[in-house]
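(Deposited chain)
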Amino acid sequence: MTTNSITASCLIRNNQVWRNGQCIYQHPVSGDTSLPDFLNACYRWRGVDYGKFFKMDSLCKVGWLAAELLADAVPPETTAVGVVLQNRSSSYGSDYQHQLAIQEPTACYPSPAVFVYTLPNIVIGEICIRHGYQGENALFVVPDFDADFQAGYVDYLLNERLVRACLGGWVEAGPQGYEAFLYVAEPTFDPVMPAHTAAVLTDLYKQSPVLLYDHAD
């Protein structure tokens, strides 16, 4: 009998990158390290060749990087992959820059390069373009990561066979800081895999350095 399981997870927080419960990248500690510096360093560490990355806003960059780290865990034989995310600050960073440009009396017009990122779900678009995902997608703006809602929504998509697999989680880049918690959920026959439940999602999101996968990379 199949059950919905979490087959991989990734956490980007505090200048660290975690995958499946193990820290795989630690940015050198520096008091003046900015978020763009950290994200660009992660990109170079991964050795990816995707020039569009540098045009993205910070929200898209942090979500895109987390999705990149999980791409090999998504079933390769299907494009029916959903993306369901939550965040707190919407597209605050780009909204703020766009508003500054509107208020600038010497500006001819606001920058289209900034305006294009003034919707929070653009991060989903960037992920889907990169990996060819064509399933159901949604981004919900909520005060804090809601594991109960997340588990229920993704389970519905999987149980109704609206998607073959789903990339889900929390992607935030705003006044209170940044973080990305993404995971892959899909039906499996493997009882070793963590179940796709609110309790497990909460543990993964809060993540202490506890190995939750027997097959961690």
Summary: Residues 208-217 have pLDDT under 50 and may be disordered. The first strand starts at residue 3 and ends at 13.
